[in-house]
Amino acid sequence: MASRLNPYLTFGGDARQAMEFYREAFGGTLTLHTFGEFGQADAPEADKVMHSMLETPTGFVLMAGDTAPGMKHTPGNNISVSLSGDDGAELRGYWEKLSAGGSVAVPLERQMWGDVFGMCTDRFGIPWLVNISEPQG
């Protein structure tokens, strides 16, 4: 898979409804995963969206999730830029450049869903999410 760059929206508890709305607006295939699916089945947020992705017939990709437990939802500051793909060397190179001089919120390392993931804010204040998946086939 080639690397992709797309917006990542964060919601305060209504990510499912928002993403269903965007699917109605743009069409396409929507996948949703809850916090409960990833080891937090007993948490109050278990039914909230940890990650979702809408892929449209025109090639649009929109990702979103509800604010993670322990983090504050701040409307106006609820959009990040997502870089994802399976070319680890390429994506690690982007990570190194984007995080240099900025701040790292989540180090680029293997996560509970199996991918390598990190969150940083570049030196200009733009939040970035980098996700490296295993190459397919």
Automatic annotation (TrEMBL):
<dbReference type="InterPro" id="IPR004360">
    <property type="entry name" value="Glyas_Fos-R_dOase_dom"/>
</dbReference>
<dbReference type="InterPro" id="IPR029068">
    <property type="entry name" value="Glyas_Bleomycin-R_OHBP_Dase"/>
</dbReference>
<dbReference type="InterPro" id="IPR028973">
    <property type="entry name" value="PhnB-like"/>
</dbReference>
<feature type="domain" description="Glyoxalase/fosfomycin resistance/dioxygenase">
    <location>
        <begin position="5"/>
        <end position="128"/>
    </location>
</feature>
<protein>
    <submittedName>
        <fullName>VOC family protein</fullName>
    </submittedName>
</protein>
<dbReference type="Pfam" id="PF00903">
    <property type="entry name" value="Glyoxalase"/>
</dbReference>
